[in-house]
Amino acid sequence: MKIALPTREGRIDNHFGHCEMYTVFTVSENREIVGTETIPSPQGCGCKSNIASVLQAQGVVVMLAGNMGAGALNVLGNHGIQVVRGCSGEVKTVAEAWLKGELADSGVGCSHTHDDGHVCNH
């Protein structure tokens, strides 16, 4: 299994669509992290980018994120990626907490308007 986290300077980036990169952890059947890789973040809004298909192609099935709006949430869900919002902190610590069952989706998203005028609720 693989889990991804929007990352900036080793921590969960609170703004999913504008993160520096995605940290992807490979997890064993024993729920232990056995590998780490990073995927550069595409430019632009997360709900308008190809990141969901890229992550899906890499085998990612869970996204541990800070804030995320309905647009990105729907796109990831349509690609078979479960989203857990409300995460914060150092990415490996967050991933380990999720693996221990200590995290649940906050159900809270965010919304704002981009310079180009569209609102993607993230």
UniProtKB/TrEMBL annotation:
It holds the Pfam family Nitro_FeMo-Co. Signal peptide: none annotated. SUPFAM superfamilies: Nitrogenase accessory factor-like. InterPro entries: Di-Nase_FeMo-co_biosynth, DiNase_FeMo-co_biosyn_sf, MTH1175_dom. Residues 9-99 form the Dinitrogenase iron-molybdenum cofactor biosynthesis domain. It comes from the Bacteria. This is Putative Fe-Mo cluster-binding NifX family protein. It comes from Acetobacteroides hydrogenigenes.
